[in-house]
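For anyone still unconvinced, we reproduce a single protein record, the chain in one-letter code, the fold tokenised, and leave readers to judge:
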Amino acid sequence: MTIKQQVINMLTENIGNYISGEDIAAALGCSRGAVWKAVKSLKNDGYAINAVTNKGYKLDTDADILSFEGVNKYIDKKLSGLDIQVFSSIDSTNNYLKSIAESGAKEGTIAIASQQTGGKGRLGRSFFSPADSGLYMSILLRPRIPADKAVRITTVAAVAVAMAVQKAFSVSADIKWVNDVYIKGKKICGILTEASLDMESGGLDYAVCGIGINIYEPKDGFPEEIRQTAGAILNKRTADAKNKMAAELINSFFELYTSNNEKAYLSEYKKRLIWVGEQINLFRGEDSISATMLGVNDDCALLVRYHDGTEATITSGEISIRKKT
């Protein structure tokens, strides 16, 4: 572990309190100059560190800066082999991982960013990814599954997000079929899984699971087109929230993804599913039809009953749903 990593760990453990440069240097077995250089570098990374003569250094209590060091300290030790890469800004974490996947990047390579300039959502939509308020993560996977089973990755991710929100902030989260996570009726997370097909085997060469989460509401609010539906996990800045959420999400995702029981996530998915038994509208492009939502089957395909009494099973494809008002 570098001196910089050790310094931020000490400041985080003593958040809100001053530690002298001399005490830090003694604890780390380095010079005060090395501590000063580490603090300077951390401040350049965006950490809110106060430096006061004869007092030392203090990390502000509301500091919430995404960093590799911050995420890594909460990662389950069993996952030490993951390649976690953190960016302050990137065009798209999905695009980045797809580009390095083609060059042979390993499963478990993870890109996390505080901002995306070209975030992508389902059905070709853009995904609002502003700086400072959200957490944007993509995970590279090389699953040995047929292409038609790839929806499992998305549904596992939805459950992992809900579990992580509960673990990190003691907040309950729900799932809207197939891949959105809601809190108190507002969408706080969207998930987009993109895959490359292995033509010889008919399975996947790789899959990239992208997850965008609203930790806070943006300073200027959400754009008009999503203002009625978008929400955030927290209503005020909380120390280390992004790092905790990122780590808990990674921990929960790989707990489910690597389980010997392929359906380990299914009961959680069904338990958290909203609008079961209610009237919904199903949209395919500009066309829509109303139905009663019955739930999902064991492959997380949507089960509905139309007004004429016929029932249908619907895979995600180009379908989206909304609650009928």
